[in-house]
Amino acid sequence: MSFLSVRNLSVRLKNGPPLLRRVSLDVAAGEVRGLVGESGAGKSMIGKAVLGILPPSVEITEGEIFVGGTDLLRLPPRESRRRIGASCALIPQDPLTALNPSHRIGPQITNRLVDILGWTRSAAEARARDLLAEVQIADPARVLRSYPHELSGGMRQRILIASAFAAEPKLIVADEPTTALDVTVQKQILKLIAGMQARHGTALLFVTHDLGVVSKVCQRLSVLYSGMVVEDSTVADFFAAPRHPYSAALLAAMPKYTDPDAGLHPVPDAEIDAVRAEVTAFDRRAARG
Amino acid sequence: MLDGRSMIRRRAGLRLWLSAGWLGALGAAALLAPWIAPHDPLAQDLFLGRMPPFWVAGAEPGYWLGTDSLGRDVLSRILYGARVALLVALAAGGISCLVGATLGLLAGFLRGWFDMIISRLIDIWMAFPPVLFAILLIAVLGPGLVSIIIAVVVIDWTRFARVVRSEAMLQGVMDYVASARVAGAGRIGTMIREVLPNVLPTIVVLLTLEMGIAVIVEAILSFVNLSISTDDPTWGGMIAEGRTSIHQAWWVLVFPLIALFLTVLAFSQLGEGLKDRFDPVLR
To answer: Is the ipTM here above 0.85?
Structure first.
């Protein structure tokens, strides 16, 4: 079985509309899976469900989330939290709010290792220095003593990446890690994540709305529309011949930077209507039970 | 090096030192009142009634800020009054901060049913007119120092709860809280270690403001004679007495008023100064 296996996961707003509709996906050990879709398709929601950080306003109505072969949803909360902490990590979207403004960088990386995983303080500090060097931060000792607001956005994202890899997790959820950054920095950060992932052999669930990013870092991908997985295939197959008409239209809508005269091709209304009809049909089936 | 940052720091520093200086001096004077007060604050001498302060012709040597209509020394009474004012400020401000900030933090961070209860409670509480509420409370509890402190806490905890709740809600949705949770930290642990430090600057500002407010509330209550026993000198009591003889002896009213004004101002400026100095984001 894959390291992460999400089975028929449904999530909805409490007493409200569904947000995820029987989502299934797998991430094998050391594999990178892209998770693409429009804004509001539920990409981030899957990552949050896996990491147990869904907002209190939503609830899981059915499904299983297997991490390392154990269904997290069947465990008592404390135990599932411990497992997530020991084997998973998050690279958040916005580096500006993902570091605590009141604490120095050093403790933010090391405290988790010391308090939750029981490392010694000196081992954790050495580890933090090594990691910052690995994400190509020039003066790790100074950066570890800094407060977040003293560092640039790109620098903070590097720190967050280093911090995510600190405890050698088996799985990292990267929630649009380059969206909040300048285009010039995005490329470096992507390269960095891909490099770190390859060196550490970590499984990666890469949430993004940028198919270009998927083609660079992922091996497999899931296309999401309105909380429903419409396509699940390898990246090579997807870019060669997408199976679902919606994902084909999505692929066609990718801007082609090599040909400035190609123009933009938004997803046609017909495809949207078709995939919406699928969602409606799904909801009707679900309502019937 | 005169960039904007260092200018801000210097201004903040001056504000902090002036306000802390006044409060420190007042605190020391209040503590040492039995030793440094020139006279017994209760000693009456009708032959020495309504003596003006030292720079006015006809002043009595040794009575620096003059005497009231019963011949009691104004300076000594202000020093003893500072004891009551500061005690109320510290105790009432501190306890309402502790109660209000704790409830607000829990409500804003945990949300759910706890937040519902606290929020409705705040709404109901705020519908009472505060001064009437205080007078009612004192009437029930009976006058006295402890009653004043209880009254201020009961009325003003909502001030903290309201602001800290919204601030905790704001911080609670930040990604660093999510990261801490993913790492395996518990809810209360995350609240204390991740959220509280970011709410603390706000709490400090509120606390110092509340201390100022407590001083005013105490003055109002002693002005309407609902504070501690009428014998003990309080600033509000002195202002009330001075009011009746404002045309003959302005100093009986003006000096406690100045002390009250400076103290309340110093408390609010202390909060802003501390925030400018210790908030890592502003620093």
So the answer is: yes
Nearest by CB to A90, from B182, B197, B198: name it.
B182
CATH 3.40.50.1860, domain B43-278, yes or no: no
Q: pLDDT tens, A98-124?
A: 999 999 999 999 988 888 788 999 999
Distance CA A28, CA A220 (A): 10
Strand partners, A190: none
Domain ranges of chain A: 4-98+170-288
| Domain A4-98+170-288 annotated CATH 3.50.50.60 | no
Helix (H) or strand (E) holding B188: helix B187-190
Map residue A21 onto helix, strand or coil: strand
- Interface probe, candidates B182, B194, B198, chain A, greatest A C-beta count within 10 A: B182
Are B38 and B64 in contact by the 8 Å Cβ rule? The answer is yes
pLDDT in tens, B219-276: 888 888 777 766 788 998 899 888 988 898 899 999 999 999 999 999 999 988 888 8
Residue of A nearest to B195 (CA): A100
To the nearest whole angstrom, how far is the Cα of B82 from the nearest Cα of chain A?
36
- Predicted TM-score (pTM) of the model is 0.86
- DSSP-assigned letter for residue B248: T
> Could you tell me if residue B66 is left (phi over 0), alpha (psi between -120 and 50 degrees) or otherwise beta?
left
Asked whether the beta carbons of residue B181 and residue A98 sit closer than 8 angstroms, the reply is: no
Estimate to the nearest angstrom the gap between the alpha carbon of A222 and the chain centroid: 12
3-state secondary structure at position A14: coil
The counts of H helices and E strands in chain A are: 11, 10
Distance from CA of B90 to the nearest CA of A (A): 26
